[in-house]
Please model this.
Amino acid sequence: QVHLVETGGGTVQPGGSLRISCAASGRTFSAYRVGWFRQCPGKEREFVAVISRFGETQYYTDSVKGRFTISRDNAKNTVYLQMNSLKPEDTAVYFCVADVTIAAAWETSAASDLNYWGKGTLVTVSS
Model:
């Protein structure tokens, strides 16, 4: 079991930056790939980014490449998502997710295939 808690959401103006965090407790954190999904009102959850067990590899959905950066600190059991050049369409609830599925498979995996989810943190991009 892995328990995930997201923090750092809030409201930011278009073009601004925000960093959200995911703190994990439970079994060995480094055993899991960890990523972020987001859900906009009225839409399904979509993949945003994932990082490999020791941080050597990251994958991003096309719409956030070059703007978002995922990182992890296994000593602190924490994963971060640095979001820059934010756009109104980035407004969503962001969920932290952990699973043993290899990172390369996350973008094509169904959300329901991934085991451990946080409750989410709301990011609003608005002027």
